[in-house]
From TrEMBL:
The keyword Ribosomal protein does not apply. InterPro entries: AB_hydrolase_fold (IPR029058), FSH-like_dom (IPR005645). Gene3D superfamilies: alpha/beta hydrolase (3.40.50.1820). Residues 88-248 form the Serine hydrolase domain. It comes from the Bacteria. One of its GO terms (molecular function) is hydrolase activity. This is Alpha/beta hydrolase. SUPFAM superfamilies: alpha/beta-Hydrolases. Keywords: Hydrolase.
Amino acid sequence: MKNYLFYFLPIFIFTGCLSTIPTLQERKESLFALSNKDFRQVNIQTSSFTLFSLQKTSTNCKNKDLKVYIEGDGLSWITRTTISANPTPITPTALELMNQDTSECKVYLARPCQYINSNECSKKYWTSNRFDEKVIKSFDDALNNLKNSYQNKNFTLIGYSGGAAIVALAASKRKDVNMLITVAGNLDTLKWTTIHNISRLDESLNPADYTKELENIKQYHLIGKEDEVIPKEVFLSYLSKFENKNNITYKYYDATHNCCWKEPYKKFLEELNIK
């Protein structure tokens, strides 16, 4: 029988003393230190959550492609048995990826309750329900908000780790997503829980169940050779669900789950000449 205490394998487990975990304010300050000075905080109110975003103060993206970078699961757990009080990441990997991108039209979008204290927040939204209907609807609302602001024609959605599940599930419900890019993505949650012998994410949606809706979207997937958190078998299981695989490209990189994605991602963008 699977142990309930390991219901959700943490993406980040803090192994030091609890007193040394950066505070929410310190984590937020670290984010702003990494962000370009041309970007400012914009809180997007959706039907369910207020989502933190970083948006450029002045840019013309009318009728263009807007690239939206969606963060990973963040600091969901403190230890294997202790859920974090706030899932704001210690290292905002999706922002680090966005910093490698020379595109003018780009936005950083955090997950529910990251960088924000709100009564809307409940720990289930960074554990059991991290990919549920309510969460995905909030990202659909956020994309509608961005499209209204930027007047862009379509989206390229980029997701890191659990953010990959978000971009895939959000794209499955829309007609204006031109491309998906995932980095170390959790794209088949059932396969993931099976590999780690942990309880299924029954309260969440699984991207691998929406391959029919995704098969006509161009997809690029970056997979870490040394990733033990979300190993390649998770992506390969997702891939196996597609009848039409013509729009899917994937490549393995010398990276773990948490380490060393900036340079590979920069080279990936250069090779594809994605602007």
